[in-house]
Design brief:
This protein is of the alpha/beta class and about 280 residues long. It is built from eleven helices and ten strands. The strands form two sheets. Strands 6-2-1-7-8-10-9 form a seven-stranded mixed beta sheet. It binds S-adenosylmethionine (SAM). S-adenosylmethionine (SAM) binds near residues 26, 77, 150 and 155.
Length: about 280
Protein backbone atom coordinates (compact mmCIF):
# COMPACT_ATOMS: atom_id res chain seq x y z
CA UNK A 1 0.00 0.00 0.00
CA UNK A 2 1.65 3.30 -1.04
CA UNK A 3 0.69 6.00 1.41
CA UNK A 4 3.71 8.26 1.72
CA UNK A 5 2.79 10.47 -1.25
CA UNK A 6 -0.48 11.59 0.33
CA UNK A 7 -0.43 14.95 1.95
CA UNK A 8 -3.22 16.66 3.79
CA UNK A 9 -3.85 20.28 2.80
CA UNK A 10 -4.73 22.84 5.47
CA UNK A 11 -8.22 23.27 4.01
CA UNK A 12 -9.01 19.55 4.01
CA UNK A 13 -7.47 19.21 7.47
CA UNK A 14 -9.92 21.86 8.72
CA UNK A 15 -12.88 20.09 7.10
CA UNK A 16 -11.90 16.69 8.47
CA UNK A 17 -11.15 17.85 12.00
CA UNK A 18 -14.41 19.83 12.19
CA UNK A 19 -16.35 16.82 10.97
CA UNK A 20 -14.76 14.58 13.62
CA UNK A 21 -15.23 17.22 16.32
CA UNK A 22 -18.92 17.64 15.51
CA UNK A 23 -19.46 13.90 15.56
CA UNK A 24 -17.73 12.93 18.79
CA UNK A 25 -15.94 15.87 20.39
CA UNK A 26 -12.41 14.62 19.61
CA UNK A 27 -10.46 17.80 19.24
CA UNK A 28 -7.44 18.22 16.97
CA UNK A 29 -5.66 21.55 17.18
CA UNK A 30 -3.49 23.15 14.50
CA UNK A 31 -0.42 21.21 15.61
CA UNK A 32 -2.10 17.84 15.04
CA UNK A 33 -2.35 17.88 11.24
CA UNK A 34 0.43 15.33 10.72
CA UNK A 35 -1.09 13.02 13.28
CA UNK A 36 -4.40 12.94 11.42
CA UNK A 37 -2.57 12.64 8.10
CA UNK A 38 -0.52 9.67 9.32
CA UNK A 39 -3.43 7.88 10.91
CA UNK A 40 -5.89 8.24 8.03
CA UNK A 41 -3.52 7.75 5.08
CA UNK A 42 -4.14 3.99 5.04
CA UNK A 43 -7.90 4.55 4.77
CA UNK A 44 -7.44 6.80 1.70
CA UNK A 45 -5.26 4.11 0.11
CA UNK A 46 -7.61 1.28 1.12
CA UNK A 47 -10.52 2.89 -0.72
CA UNK A 48 -8.22 3.72 -3.64
CA UNK A 49 -9.03 7.40 -3.41
CA UNK A 50 -6.84 10.06 -4.94
CA UNK A 51 -6.34 12.29 -1.92
CA UNK A 52 -7.72 13.37 1.46
CA UNK A 53 -10.27 15.62 -0.15
CA UNK A 54 -11.85 12.65 -1.90
CA UNK A 55 -11.69 10.82 1.40
CA UNK A 56 -13.55 13.68 3.08
CA UNK A 57 -16.33 13.39 0.46
CA UNK A 58 -16.36 9.63 0.98
CA UNK A 59 -16.92 10.16 4.72
CA UNK A 60 -19.64 12.69 4.04
CA UNK A 61 -21.61 11.09 1.22
CA UNK A 62 -20.68 7.49 0.42
CA UNK A 63 -23.31 4.82 1.10
CA UNK A 64 -20.76 3.13 3.39
CA UNK A 65 -20.01 6.33 5.29
CA UNK A 66 -21.34 5.08 8.66
CA UNK A 67 -19.07 2.05 8.52
CA UNK A 68 -16.12 4.24 7.51
CA UNK A 69 -16.78 6.64 10.36
CA UNK A 70 -16.64 3.70 12.78
CA UNK A 71 -13.26 2.75 11.33
CA UNK A 72 -12.03 6.33 11.78
CA UNK A 73 -13.19 6.33 15.41
CA UNK A 74 -11.43 3.01 16.04
CA UNK A 75 -8.23 4.53 14.63
CA UNK A 76 -8.39 7.91 16.35
CA UNK A 77 -9.46 7.03 19.88
CA UNK A 78 -6.87 6.30 22.55
CA UNK A 79 -8.00 3.18 24.36
CA UNK A 80 -5.30 2.73 26.99
CA UNK A 81 -6.74 1.14 30.15
CA UNK A 82 -6.09 -1.53 32.79
CA UNK A 83 -7.70 -3.10 35.85
CA UNK A 84 -7.52 -1.26 39.18
CA UNK A 85 -6.36 1.98 37.58
CA UNK A 86 -5.94 4.88 40.06
CA UNK A 87 -5.98 2.97 43.32
CA UNK A 88 -6.57 5.84 45.83
CA UNK A 89 -9.79 6.79 44.05
CA UNK A 90 -10.92 3.16 43.92
CA UNK A 91 -10.25 2.91 47.66
CA UNK A 92 -12.50 5.92 48.26
CA UNK A 93 -15.11 4.23 46.06
CA UNK A 94 -14.89 0.80 47.75
CA UNK A 95 -14.32 1.81 51.35
CA UNK A 96 -16.42 4.96 51.64
CA UNK A 97 -18.74 5.62 48.72
CA UNK A 98 -20.20 2.12 48.42
CA UNK A 99 -20.88 1.76 52.18
CA UNK A 100 -22.45 5.24 52.24
CA UNK A 101 -24.77 4.40 49.33
CA UNK A 102 -25.64 0.97 50.78
CA UNK A 103 -26.54 2.58 54.09
CA UNK A 104 -28.59 5.44 52.64
CA UNK A 105 -30.48 3.17 50.25
CA UNK A 106 -30.95 0.53 52.92
CA UNK A 107 -32.60 3.16 55.12
CA UNK A 108 -34.89 4.19 52.27
CA UNK A 109 -35.75 0.56 51.49
CA UNK A 110 -34.15 0.73 48.05
CA UNK A 111 -32.17 -2.22 46.77
CA UNK A 112 -30.76 -1.19 43.43
CA UNK A 113 -27.38 0.18 42.43
CA UNK A 114 -26.67 1.67 39.00
CA UNK A 115 -23.18 2.62 37.86
CA UNK A 116 -22.15 3.98 34.45
CA UNK A 117 -18.60 3.65 33.15
CA UNK A 118 -18.58 6.21 30.33
CA UNK A 119 -15.70 5.67 27.89
CA UNK A 120 -14.96 2.20 29.25
CA UNK A 121 -12.65 1.11 26.41
CA UNK A 122 -11.97 -2.65 26.57
CA UNK A 123 -13.90 -3.07 29.82
CA UNK A 124 -11.23 -3.16 32.53
CA UNK A 125 -12.83 -0.22 34.37
CA UNK A 126 -16.43 -1.53 34.69
CA UNK A 127 -15.11 -5.01 35.47
CA UNK A 128 -12.94 -3.51 38.24
CA UNK A 129 -16.02 -1.73 39.58
CA UNK A 130 -17.95 -5.03 39.56
CA UNK A 131 -15.15 -6.79 41.45
CA UNK A 132 -15.14 -4.07 44.10
CA UNK A 133 -18.92 -4.25 44.44
CA UNK A 134 -18.69 -8.02 44.94
CA UNK A 135 -15.74 -7.65 47.37
CA UNK A 136 -17.77 -5.23 49.48
CA UNK A 137 -20.42 -7.88 50.17
CA UNK A 138 -22.90 -5.04 50.67
CA UNK A 139 -25.12 -5.65 47.68
CA UNK A 140 -25.94 -9.37 47.78
CA UNK A 141 -29.53 -9.79 46.61
CA UNK A 142 -29.64 -6.22 45.22
CA UNK A 143 -30.29 -5.33 41.62
CA UNK A 144 -26.82 -4.23 40.54
CA UNK A 145 -26.29 -2.83 37.07
CA UNK A 146 -22.93 -1.64 35.76
CA UNK A 147 -23.08 -0.20 32.26
CA UNK A 148 -19.88 0.22 30.25
CA UNK A 149 -20.20 2.40 27.16
CA UNK A 150 -17.81 3.51 24.45
CA UNK A 151 -17.84 5.02 20.98
CA UNK A 152 -15.44 2.44 19.53
CA UNK A 153 -17.00 -0.83 18.34
CA UNK A 154 -13.56 -2.44 18.29
CA UNK A 155 -12.96 -2.01 22.03
CA UNK A 156 -16.52 -3.01 22.92
CA UNK A 157 -16.04 -6.32 21.14
CA UNK A 158 -13.02 -7.03 23.36
CA UNK A 159 -14.92 -5.88 26.46
CA UNK A 160 -17.76 -8.28 25.73
CA UNK A 161 -15.36 -11.16 25.22
CA UNK A 162 -13.86 -10.52 28.66
CA UNK A 163 -10.46 -12.09 28.02
CA UNK A 164 -7.36 -10.14 28.95
CA UNK A 165 -3.59 -10.32 28.50
CA UNK A 166 -0.80 -9.38 30.94
CA UNK A 167 -0.81 -5.61 30.27
CA UNK A 168 -4.36 -5.33 31.65
CA UNK A 169 -3.10 -6.71 34.97
CA UNK A 170 -0.19 -4.31 35.53
CA UNK A 171 -1.88 -2.94 38.69
CA UNK A 172 -3.81 -6.00 39.77
CA UNK A 173 -3.14 -7.84 42.97
CA UNK A 174 -2.63 -11.53 42.00
CA UNK A 175 -5.22 -12.41 44.66
CA UNK A 176 -7.84 -10.45 42.74
CA UNK A 177 -6.77 -12.03 39.45
CA UNK A 178 -7.02 -15.54 40.88
CA UNK A 179 -10.37 -14.78 42.50
CA UNK A 180 -12.14 -13.27 39.51
CA UNK A 181 -10.47 -14.79 36.40
CA UNK A 182 -9.81 -18.21 34.93
CA UNK A 183 -6.80 -18.86 32.68
CA UNK A 184 -7.56 -19.58 29.00
CA UNK A 185 -4.98 -19.91 26.20
CA UNK A 186 -2.39 -17.61 27.75
CA UNK A 187 -5.03 -15.05 28.73
CA UNK A 188 -7.38 -14.56 31.67
CA UNK A 189 -11.16 -14.77 31.32
CA UNK A 190 -13.44 -12.86 33.67
CA UNK A 191 -15.71 -15.20 35.65
CA UNK A 192 -19.48 -15.23 35.27
CA UNK A 193 -20.48 -13.63 38.62
CA UNK A 194 -18.53 -10.50 37.57
CA UNK A 195 -19.69 -10.67 33.96
CA UNK A 196 -23.34 -10.88 35.04
CA UNK A 197 -23.14 -7.46 36.72
CA UNK A 198 -21.73 -5.67 33.68
CA UNK A 199 -23.18 -5.00 30.26
CA UNK A 200 -21.71 -3.02 27.40
CA UNK A 201 -23.15 -0.73 24.77
CA UNK A 202 -22.20 1.68 22.04
CA UNK A 203 -22.79 5.26 23.15
CA UNK A 204 -21.40 8.53 21.83
CA UNK A 205 -21.08 10.98 24.72
CA UNK A 206 -22.26 13.72 22.34
CA UNK A 207 -25.52 11.96 21.56
CA UNK A 208 -27.89 13.52 24.12
CA UNK A 209 -31.03 11.70 23.04
CA UNK A 210 -29.41 8.26 23.39
CA UNK A 211 -27.85 9.20 26.73
CA UNK A 212 -31.25 10.26 28.07
CA UNK A 213 -32.45 6.67 27.57
CA UNK A 214 -30.03 5.52 30.30
CA UNK A 215 -32.25 6.79 33.10
CA UNK A 216 -30.81 7.77 36.48
CA UNK A 217 -27.56 6.40 37.87
CA UNK A 218 -25.92 6.53 41.30
CA UNK A 219 -22.32 6.84 40.13
CA UNK A 220 -20.58 7.82 36.90
CA UNK A 221 -17.01 6.82 36.17
CA UNK A 222 -15.61 8.89 33.32
CA UNK A 223 -11.88 8.65 33.65
CA UNK A 224 -9.29 9.66 31.09
CA UNK A 225 -11.94 10.51 28.48
CA UNK A 226 -12.68 14.24 28.66
CA UNK A 227 -8.97 15.08 28.32
CA UNK A 228 -9.49 14.58 24.56
CA UNK A 229 -12.28 17.20 24.36
CA UNK A 230 -12.05 20.99 24.27
CA UNK A 231 -13.68 23.16 26.93
CA UNK A 232 -17.05 23.35 25.17
CA UNK A 233 -17.07 19.57 24.64
CA UNK A 234 -16.14 18.92 28.27
CA UNK A 235 -18.98 21.19 29.43
CA UNK A 236 -21.52 19.39 27.25
CA UNK A 237 -20.49 15.96 28.50
CA UNK A 238 -20.41 17.06 32.16
CA UNK A 239 -23.96 18.39 31.77
CA UNK A 240 -25.02 14.94 30.51
CA UNK A 241 -23.53 13.38 33.63
CA UNK A 242 -25.27 15.94 35.83
CA UNK A 243 -28.58 15.07 34.16
CA UNK A 244 -28.11 11.33 34.59
CA UNK A 245 -26.89 11.40 38.21
CA UNK A 246 -29.23 11.27 41.16
CA UNK A 247 -28.90 14.13 43.64
CA UNK A 248 -25.95 13.22 45.87
CA UNK A 249 -24.59 10.87 43.17
CA UNK A 250 -20.86 10.72 42.48
CA UNK A 251 -18.79 11.57 39.41
CA UNK A 252 -15.35 9.98 39.30
CA UNK A 253 -12.98 11.61 36.82
CA UNK A 254 -9.37 10.70 36.00
CA UNK A 255 -6.76 12.09 38.38
CA UNK A 256 -5.56 14.69 35.84
CA UNK A 257 -9.11 15.90 35.16
CA UNK A 258 -11.14 18.47 37.05
CA UNK A 259 -14.39 20.41 36.80
CA UNK A 260 -12.68 23.75 37.34
CA UNK A 261 -14.39 26.35 35.10
CA UNK A 262 -16.65 23.63 33.68
CA UNK A 263 -19.51 23.15 36.12
CA UNK A 264 -20.89 24.42 39.40
CA UNK A 265 -23.34 21.55 39.78
CA UNK A 266 -20.84 19.42 41.70
CA UNK A 267 -18.91 19.84 44.93
CA UNK A 268 -15.61 18.19 45.79
CA UNK A 269 -16.10 15.76 48.64
CA UNK A 270 -13.06 14.80 50.70
CA UNK A 271 -12.67 11.13 51.52
CA UNK A 272 -9.81 9.49 53.41
CA UNK A 273 -8.09 8.30 50.23
CA UNK A 274 -9.15 10.82 47.58
CA UNK A 275 -11.45 13.70 46.63
CA UNK A 276 -14.47 12.92 44.48
CA UNK A 277 -17.14 15.09 42.80
CA UNK A 278 -20.65 14.82 44.19
CA UNK A 279 -23.76 16.21 42.53
CA UNK A 280 -24.95 18.95 44.86
C1 LIG B 1 -8.15 6.32 27.49
S1 LIG B 1 -9.65 5.43 27.37
C2 LIG B 1 -10.15 5.43 29.08
C3 LIG B 1 -10.62 4.07 29.55
C4 LIG B 1 -11.00 3.99 31.01
N1 LIG B 1 -12.04 4.94 31.33
C5 LIG B 1 -9.80 4.21 31.90
O1 LIG B 1 -9.67 5.28 32.51
O2 LIG B 1 -8.97 3.31 32.00
C6 LIG B 1 -10.75 6.64 26.63
C7 LIG B 1 -11.97 6.03 25.96
O3 LIG B 1 -12.93 7.06 25.69
C8 LIG B 1 -13.59 6.72 24.50
N2 LIG B 1 -14.22 7.92 23.89
C9 LIG B 1 -13.62 8.97 23.30
N3 LIG B 1 -14.54 9.84 22.83
C10 LIG B 1 -15.75 9.32 23.13
C11 LIG B 1 -17.09 9.76 22.89
N4 LIG B 1 -17.39 10.89 22.24
N5 LIG B 1 -18.10 8.97 23.33
C12 LIG B 1 -17.84 7.82 23.99
N6 LIG B 1 -16.59 7.35 24.24
C13 LIG B 1 -15.55 8.10 23.82
C14 LIG B 1 -12.49 6.13 23.63
O4 LIG B 1 -13.01 5.30 22.59
C15 LIG B 1 -11.64 5.36 24.64
O5 LIG B 1 -11.96 3.99 24.68
Amino acid sequence: MITHELSLSDTTYRLLKEFIYRHCGLFFDDGNKYLLERRLANRVALHQLRDFQEYYYYLMYDKNRAEELNAVIDILTINETYFFREVPQLKAFAEEILPEIAEAKGRAGERSLRIWSAGCSTGEEPHTVAMLVLDSGLFAGWEVEIFGSDISHRVLKIARKGEYGPSSFRCTDPLHRDKYFTPVDGKWRIIDPVRRLVHFGYLNLFDSSRIALLGEVDIVFCRNVIIYFDKEGKKKVITEFENRLKTGGYLLLGHSESLMNLSTAFRLKHFKHDMVYQKA
